[in-house]
């Protein structure tokens, strides 16, 4: 335990009374960062949604990607300067807090494998039941990724910029404050979830006939699962100390979507036994979830984590 504490204080050499910034300052900066991410969407006719211009239009996607790249660069630079000149960290330590170096290739692979356990059922459905493995052999998903702007946004640009903003730029600010690591994991993702609420307005523009209550329920559900995912991504980011790991997990989850949790499972062409497919799917879904929970700590453990005490602190609040 002594060595554990010494390692923690080496990475976090500030006492509770001498934190470089306060939790309030970190929170306000996070809110400002979030606003800088999506508010510009509504300032330009190139990115502003309308009844005739969808957020999924390729021209809108390109313009929004340019906008968020500028926002993310400015936010990352702001946090990096705070790490250097307010927290008095060295450049290597500052890059480590940002999750930019070391890259964490091994940690990323382990985190991706852990997340795949959670999607064991959907992977079985896609690769085996629907013969998705054949598409991968032919390279169709890779061609789609590079040739379709919507796919590029959902799998690459969206996850990367969101992780740069809500993990790389934001989490180090809370690590500098007096907020316990366990609370960072559950607190900061709330802003991440709220940053998606503006989709309610865009959805209403494109679907005016959908009742307001139904659209509101849709936004509440989206807020709930994005906040939950944000907590997981923050956990992975702090445990691995790697932006790449958080990005890989985010991109994978976006590609998989929400798992099917009820109903029968059958092939698109109707061949095969629906009972076999259904039993296989739900067995893997439950088994994968159990495996995910059991391996959560082992597969996110690495030598580059932001703080070795994250596991200890987190269990205190379970």
From TrEMBL:
Keyword annotations of the record: Endoplasmic reticulum, Hydrolase, Membrane, Protease, Transmembrane, Transmembrane helix
Record field: catalytic activity: Hydrolyzes the peptide bond -P2-(S-farnesyl or geranylgeranyl)C-P1'-P2'-P3'-COOH where P1' and P2' are amino acids with aliphatic sidechains and P3' is any C-terminal residue
Main location: endoplasmic reticulum
InterPro entries registered for this protein in UniProt: Rce1, Rce1/LyrA-like_dom
Protein EC: 3.4.26.1
Membrane topology summary: Multi-pass membrane protein
GO BP terms in the entry: CAAX-box protein processing
TM spans (from-to): 21-43, 63-87, 108-129, 184-201, 275-293
Gene Ontology, cellular component aspect: endoplasmic reticulum membrane
Domain CAAX prenyl protease 2/Lysostaphin resistance protein A-like positions: 151-256
Pfam families found in the cross-reference section: Rce1-like (PF02517)
Top class in the EC scheme: hydrolase
Top-rank taxon: Eukaryota
Cellular localization per UniProt: Endoplasmic reticulum membrane
One annotated GO molecular function: metalloendopeptidase activity
Family: Belongs to the peptidase U48 family.
Protein name, per record: intramembrane prenyl-peptidase Rce1
